[in-house]
Each structure stands twice: as C-alpha cells, then as structure tokens.
Design brief:
Number of strands: 7
Order of helices and strands: HHHEEEEEEE
Shape: elongated
Distance between the termini: 74 Å
Number of domains: 2
Strand order of the largest sheet: 1-2-7-6
Helix content: 10-25%
Strand content: 25-35%
C-alpha cells in the first residue's frame, strides 16, 4: 500500500506524538486515533494494608458534573467537561478535550463498599475505599 508524501511544517513537527503518526499522518487524522484517547481522566490506583486510594485528575470539571459509582467490584468515574462559550473569537488551536468521559476500574474484592468516601478539590478527585477487617493483614505473635 502506498501513501502520499506530505511535507511537514515546523509547527506540525511538535504536534505529532507517536512514530506511527509520523509515518501515517493521514490515517491517524482521518480516523481520530490520536485525538480521542480513552484514558481520560488520568488515574492512579494505590493499594496499601488499610485500603485502596483512587486519584483522578479532572481539571476544569465541576464536582457537580462528576458521578462516581461502585457496583460488582468495579468503580466507574464519569462526567462531563463543558466547553466554555467563545463569543466573537476564532479558535486557532484546540487541544483541551470537552464532552463526556468515563473510566472503569476493577477493584479487589476486599473493599468495604459501605465506607467509601470521595472528595474533589483543585481538579483532583480522591476516592478512598477501605478494606474489610477480615481482609486486613493480622500480625501473629510467636510464642
């Protein structure tokens, strides 16, 4: 299969992120592989002996626009980042993504679902999922 050669302008050189984009720029822009990642919001999941902590970055999203659900061992974070109105202006470049989003994270079975807490401040959503007492490690003394 042959692809048409396109000279790359200096500005475009820094907007391409992957080697595949450099090799096949038309295909990636045509099918929006690069423009629509499915990993928003970025999430860290940390487990320790007390429980699981999920931290999600959601800058520019109001906490009223975020929904957190826990069902059958999966945590779902969904919501919408609303686009501000740009009156009497032309958009020269748009890299911030707007619209609805959803992330699903599988959790260990040891999570106490009744004691889950979530808070959102400064664009960071923190969800604390404590472990059940039976799942916490117990220290046994040696006689």
């Amino acid at each position: 299969m042959l692809f048409r050669y396109e000279p790359i302008v200096f500005d475009q050189m820094f907007s391409r992120t992957s080697p595949a984009e450099w090799a096949l720029p038309e295909i990636f822009t045509q099918f929006n592989f690069v423009d629509r990642p499915n990993n928003y919001p970025s999430v860290n999941v940390v487990e320790n002996k007390e429980g699981v902590l999920v931290v999600a970055e959601i800058p520019g999203v109001l906490k009223e626009d975020v929904k957190v659900q826990l069902q059958d061992g999966t945590l779902t974070i969904s919501g919408e980042r609303k686009q501000p109105e740009e009156k009497d202006s032309d958009v020269l470049r748009r890299e911030i993504r707007y619209g609805s989003f959803s992330r699903t994270i599988e959790l260990p079975e040891s999570v106490e679902t009744e004691k889950v807490t979530a808070d959102c401040a400064n664009g960071v959503l923190r969800i604390s999922l404590p472990k059940r007492e039976a799942a916490k490690p117990k220290e046994i003394s040696i006689r």
